[in-house]
């Protein structure tokens, strides 16, 4: 039998399999053991409990040093390989002919009761035309048009913040900024925009993370999402002038006849892609500047560093911790064999801390010369589509921030997301200090 | 050494010298020509060194290979003269090469 399978041969029964591993939750965390005290084969970085407590870094350090290709035999997601070095992550990401994105791009198996086919989790030739249908909305021309809108909104959001009081930066800035942006990209009813935030959280959420009560609850909310968008879709059929994501999908020959599950899959892809990632990078910028106050001083003294700081935040945070692939043939690497059909996890969060590429990789350095080389956007044909719109939002928020405030101080405990995929923050209590009332133009 | 020219989106002209064997992307980065990001360092992995090759040079630089073609395809503003500058090697025959740099990289 040929070594190469197509995605049509994927074993459907494998989906949603239960792996007999305990399903730990936010309220019942997996016990922590120092990774250097464990036998190498017992390391299992795909554990939301680790990320929730920010305790994943040492696992990746050990894997990068001792087992750059590592096999975890048992986990809540079944068996998987981990790649943790920058060069390996990049090489596998680029090799889409050997490493398939189908049927899912996260280590978790797709839910069998609600499959979400989406173009990020498709191979060529299906992937290209669907991506091309929507990419103009975040293309260069549209971006130039969006810049003043982003600036105005960022300014309004920052002006509404209570100076001198403690508030949650995630809720009042990160979510607000990215949700407004997303509403614009979809031309989504503005007053209902918080539904987008909710659907984004529900897509990547689980009962264990506390985001949804049950799998059934998650399914029902996502169906509500599809129905809502179905109405918008119907209204926009024939709207050839529309440059919003719905009009583009509804009127492109490659996407206008999508079956309902694929419609929902691509929607949630665009919602999560346009939301969670920038949201968590915006929150991360505050965390990083507080952890590295010398960098905050540098930024205040020289706002022209904002552009490079944005890339450095995206490297330092890595808002999506990994992407997953499936080997389409046997592959030899680092003296081991990945077997055809095996699940391979590219840990972006680790590649971005690889000291072979980034000097003092754990430090946040807004003048880092190669910050742009981070792997957070991925490399190859699945590279992040909205990277420029994400960067633009971060840049503008910080440009507007420095016009108004001299400091944002983290004043309480940070709560992180319970996920091994979305690498971010739920709560970030901060207090602002206004600029001294000297007239600055 | 061959001399090549980059024209920015706003019409600014950058003429640079480049060693044979280097790439057009290298020539831009080494000489601080604005508008080329080259995030991946020249491995045809990010498509942020996109240029529009001057009509007179399109045939001389040849056509993109499969990998480059797939990456160029990610850009909605691709045209028939689009190339990734990291994939164009400088030879003596490219003395006088000209390309336009887009306003934004994807």
Fill in the keyword field for this structure.
heterodimer; A: alpha+beta; five-stranded mixed sheet; 15 helices; 12 strands; globular; B: 106 residues; alpha+beta; 5 strands
Structure report:
The complex is a heterodimer of chains A (441) and B (106). In chain A, 41% of the residues lie in helices and 10% in strands. With 441 residues, chain A is an alpha+beta fold. In chain A, the strands form 4 sheets. In chain A, strands 1-2-8-5-3 form a 5-stranded mixed sheet. In chain A, strands 4-12-9 form a 3-stranded antiparallel sheet. In chain A, helix 7 packs across helix 8 and helix 8 packs across helix 10. Chain B is of the alpha+beta class. A 5-stranded mixed sheet of chain B has the order 2-1-5-3-4. In chain B, strand 1 and strand 2 form a beta hairpin. The longest helix of chain B is centred in the first third of the chain and has 7 residues. Chains A and B meet through helix 3, helix 4 and helix 5 of A and loops of B.
Mean pLDDT over all positions of chain A: 91
Structural class of chain A: alpha+beta
Mean pLDDT of chain B: 95
The geometry of chain B reads as globular
How many helices of chain A does DSSP assign? 15
What topology emerges from the helices and strands here?
The complex is a heterodimer of chains A (441) and B (106).
Chain A: H1 48-52, H2 57-66, E1 69-72, E2 80-83, H3 86-94, E3 99-100, H4 127-134, H5 140-159, E4 167-168, H6 169-186, H7 194-204, H8 215-236, H9 245-250, H10 260-273, H11 276-291, H12 293-301, H13 306-317, E5 322-327, E6 331-333, E7 336-338, E8 343-347, H14 348-351, H15 387-404, E9 405-410, E10 415-416, E11 425-427, E12 429-434
Parallel strand pairs in A: 2-8
Antiparallel strand pairs in A: 1-2, 3-5, 4-12, 5-8, 6-7, 9-12, 10-11
Chain B: E1 3-7, E2 13-17, H1 24-30, E3 50-53, H2 55-61, H3 66-72, E4 82-84, E5 98-100
Parallel strand pairs in B: 1-5
Antiparallel strand pairs in B: 1-2, 3-4, 3-5
């Amino acid at each position: 039998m040929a070594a190469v399978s197509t995605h049509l041969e994927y074993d459907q029964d494998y989906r949603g399999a239960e792996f007999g591993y305990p399903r730990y939750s936010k309220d019942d965390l997996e016990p922590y053991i120092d990774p250097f005290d464990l036998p190498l084969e017992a390391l299992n970085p795909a554990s939301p409990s680790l990320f929730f407590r920010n305790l994943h870094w040492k696992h990746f350090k050990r894997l990068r040093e001792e087992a750059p290709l590592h096999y975890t035999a048992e986990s809540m997601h079944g068996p998987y390989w981990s790649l943790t070095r920058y060069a390996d992550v990049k090489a596998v990401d680029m090799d889409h002919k050997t490493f398939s994105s189908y049927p899912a791009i996260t280590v978790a198996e797709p839910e069998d009761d609600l499959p979400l086919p989406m173009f990020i989790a498709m191979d060529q030739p299906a992937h290209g035309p669907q991506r091309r249908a929507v990419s103009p909305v975040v293309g260069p021309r549209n971006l130039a048009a969006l810049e003043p809108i982003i600036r105005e909104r960022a300014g309004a959001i920052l002006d509404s913040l209570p100076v001198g009081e403690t508030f949650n930066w995630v809720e009042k800035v990160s979510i607000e900024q990215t949700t407004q942006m997303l509403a614009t990209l979809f031309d989504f009813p503005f007053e209902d925009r918080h539904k987008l935030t909710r659907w984004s959280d529900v897509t990547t959420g689980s009962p264990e993370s506390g985001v949804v009560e049950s799998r059934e609850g998650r399914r029902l909310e996502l169906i509500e999402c599809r129905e809502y968008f179905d109405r918008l879709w119907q209204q926009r059929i024939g709207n050839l002038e529309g440059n919003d994501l719905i009009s583009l999908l509804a009127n492109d020959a490659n996407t206008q006849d999508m079956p309902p599950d694929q419609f929902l899959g691509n929607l949630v892809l665009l919602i999560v892609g346009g939301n969670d990632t920038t949201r968590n990078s915006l929150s991360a910028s505050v965390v990083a500047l507080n952890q590295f106050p010398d960098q905050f001083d540098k930024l205040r003294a020289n706002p022209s560093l904002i552009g490079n700081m944005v890339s450095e935040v995206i490297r330092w945070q890595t808002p999506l911790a990994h992407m997953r692939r499936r080997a389409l043939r046997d592959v030899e690497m680092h003296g081991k064999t990945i077997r055809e059909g095996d699940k391979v996890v590219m840990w972006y969060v680790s590649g971005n801390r690889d000291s072979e590429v980034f000097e003092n990789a754990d430090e946040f350095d807004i003048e880092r010369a190669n910050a742009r080389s981070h792997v957070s956007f991925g490399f190859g044909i699945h590279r992040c589509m909205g990277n420029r719109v994400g960067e633009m939002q971060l840049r503008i928020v910080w440009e507007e921030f420095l016009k108004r405030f001299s400091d944002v101080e983290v004043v309480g405990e940070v709560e992180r997301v319970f996920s091994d995929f979305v690498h971010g923050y739920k709560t970030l209590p901060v207090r602002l200090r206004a600029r001294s009332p000297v007239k600055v133009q | 050494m061959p001399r090549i020219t980059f024209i920015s989106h706003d019409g600014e002209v950058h003429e640079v010298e480049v060693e044979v064997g280097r790439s057009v992307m290298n020539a831009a980065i080494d000489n601080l020509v604005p508008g080329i990001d080259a995030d991946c360092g020249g491995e045809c992995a990010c498509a942020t060194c996109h240029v529009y090759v001057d009509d007179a040079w399109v045939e001389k630089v040849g056509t993109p290979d499969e990998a480059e073609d797939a990456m160029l395809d990610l850009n909605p503003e691709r045209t028939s003269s689009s190339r990734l500058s990291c994939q164009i090697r400088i030879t003596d025959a490219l003395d006088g090469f000209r390309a336009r740099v887009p306003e934004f990289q994807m």
